[in-house]
Amino acid sequence: MQDIFYILKGCINNDARCQKQLYDHYLHFALKVSFRYVHSFENAANAANDAFVKIFKAIHNFEIRNADNLEAMLSGWIKRIVVNASIDYMSKESLVPQMSELPEAVWKKHDAEASGESKLVYKELIVLIRKLSPAYRVVFNLYVIDGYTHAEIAQMLGFLRAHQSLTCQRQKLFYKNIL
User: Fold this and answer.
1) For the chain, how many helices (H) and strands (E)?
2) Could you tell me if 45 and 31 are in contact, meaning their C-beta atoms sit under 8 angstroms apart?
3) pTM, 2 dp
4) Which of 66, 80, 82, 83 is nearest to 4 (CA)?
5) 48 to each of 38, 44, 103, 154, 158, how far by Cα in Å?
6) Per-residue pLDDT tens for 59-92?
7) Which alpha helices (H) appear in 36-160, and where do they start and end?
8) How many other CB atoms sit within 10 Å of the CB of residue 149?
C-alpha cells in the first residue's frame, strides 16, 4: 500500500482516490471483524460499509501519535469503529440469525503476516463463536477477542455490568463443554 501517511492526509482532504485506497486495503479486515458479530456475509458487508462511512466522516479525528506504528494504530481505530457499527447494525435491523459462510478470498486478504496455523485456529474459533446466541456472541467477541472491559461492554450495549459479567461466565461454561 502506498505510504499510509499520505493516504490518511488525502482522506482528511476528502480525496476520493485516497479514500478508495484506504477502503480497498481495509475492506477484508473490516469484513472479518464484522462477520464475528453478524450471521451473514451480506449483513457483515452492510455493517462494514456503514463503518467506512463513519470512518471517512471521522478521519480528521484520527490522531497520529507515533509514525512508526501508524498502520497498527489505524487498524485498531478502524476495528473499533467496525465493532461499533456491527453492533449498531444488529440492533437497528433486529437481525434474525441466517447462517452463511465468509468467502474464502476474505480470509486470505490482509493476513499476509499470519502463519497458516494461526489462520486455521482463527477460522475454527469463528465457527465455535457462531454457535453462540447473538447476544452471547457479541459479548464474547467484545470481551475475549476485542479486549473490552466489562464496564465498557455494559456501556456499549446499555445494560448493567453485573448482567454482562454473568453473560461472560455462561459463555466460559459453554466453551469448556465444547472444547
Assistant:
1) 9, 0
2) yes
3) 0.68
4) 66
5) 11, 6, 15, 23, 22
6) 999 988 877 889 999 999 999 999 999 988 887 7
7) 41-58, 70-93, 104-108, 116-129, 134-140, 150-157
8) 12
